[in-house]
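ok so i was messing around last nite and threw this chain in just to see what happens. nothing serious, just curious
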Amino acid sequence: MEYLIIAIKLIVGLSILNVWLLRSGKETQWRGGDAGSLEEEFKAYGLPVWFMWAVGGLKILFALGLLASIWFTGYPELETYSAYGIAVLMLGAVSMHIKVKDPLKKSFPAFTFLVLSLVVAFV
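result:
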């Protein structure tokens, strides 16, 4: 089970870093509305740009915390706070997809990371 949790942390943490640091300005099939970038996506949700930076900063922080918890096992609260933080942010992402009436397919990554983060938090 320990290796499964490590794999989940790697998948969630690296995926979030990929989206926010490497692919923030690129189109993907998962973006809300007809957005081609993260900034356009937040505008489609009716959210201000400063909120995008706040959410992005938190997602990056929690993703790094989740990754760091693989090596710093003496700090279980690092894993817990990071997993719960990602879960809350992903719940917000799913709700934004619902708000703009996106097809369910676009909510799939956020919902998947929500579930995986809760697995890390509760196992």
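not much to say yet. The two ends are 9 Å apart (CA to CA).
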